[in-house]
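Go through the following before class.
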Amino acid sequence: MFSSVYEALDFLENEWPVKTGNRYRNAIAACRGALNRTTPVAVARDAFVAACYEAGVGVTSAMPMHAWTTDHRTGLQ
């Protein structure tokens, strides 16, 4: 379970099982954009979930939006 955009991006960049595919690339870009505050967090979250489906990574339940933060140090959106 991921509680922030930073954690999702870290997983995508360092532990992702299949580092190919359009949805994977879109998720990387969306998470980076959310961290830079140029992309809405909701877009990053949706892109991450789409990448999970593309790669066959299990998604048991999508976390509520309030659980995702853009700043992993402070928890502020």
User: Anything to note?
Assistant: The chain has three helices and no strands.
